[in-house]
From TrEMBL:
Catalytic activity, EC: 1.14.11.55
UniProt similarity note: Belongs to the PhyH family. EctD subfamily.
Reaction catalysis annotation: L-ectoine + 2-oxoglutarate + O2 = 5-hydroxyectoine + succinate + CO2
Keywords for this protein: Dioxygenase, Iron, Metal-binding, Oxidoreductase
Protein name: Ectoine hydroxylase
UniProt superkingdom: Bacteria
Amino acid sequence: MTAMIDTTTDLYPSRLAEPGEVIERQHPTVWGTADDGRFDAAALEAHSERGFSILQDFITPGEVTQYSAELERLAADTSLQGDHRVVREKSSGEVRSIFEVTQLSEQIDALSRDPRLLDRARQLLGSDVYLHQTRVNYMPGYKGTGFYWHSDFETWHAEDGMPAPRAVSCSIALTPNYPYNGGLMVMPGSHRSYVPCVGQTPENYHQDSLKEQKIGVPSEEAITELAWKHGVDQFTGPAGSALWFDCNIMHGSGNNITPFPRSNIFLVFNSVENALTEPYAAPAPRPTHIGNRDFTPLR
């Protein structure tokens, strides 16, 4: 175990009145070693360098079928109509995301504790972990809208009070991710640069930002510089693939104008030594279904 993260100094300021300089990351990407889990030394080195890892066949075809049926059940659950954990597409009204999904699905709760995930999360973060955020995402054919380029850590730091970029996300694809159906794009290596954003966080901003984010997004100049420096990769692969990516990597997705839908299970693991404090740049913390404040280690 390592020492608790210092929360007294804000090393990653954002939501500024004027554009700020890009900040070099002050913390590691990989905190554990090859002896600590399922990634070998070469995989850990590659993850540290690129900021992400793609694992094919992470879950079995049978599990893909099982979890796909569970996502269909959740989307059709009439008891969730009007539930604050359900985010719908702005134009079509179709379900876009369901948050705090481990509280709604025993199957997904069990998956979050599966050694295939938990061992890797602990290894990457070098400590016990808890779930900062869980959700399932739906991107229907023709109607699925994307997300502009952003760093998750910028939001989690500014609005949730996450002190340092010591969190990792795992996105498990339940449908094929083609290059043309709105798949996630990442800038390999961009996780080493923290981009401060301009604009004050409004009250209850999460009610809008989960559909369309306007505050907490980097400038086009910053995106251009990062893209030319690092290039752009995309998470493609068959159903059952998993993308592990650092919380500060610059990423985004385009609209899905194809007939081929996408869906995934999205789990965010945070180190228990990086527990949330007060938001660094927001009037109040976001609700706990978006930024969990129960730091009990997963078992």
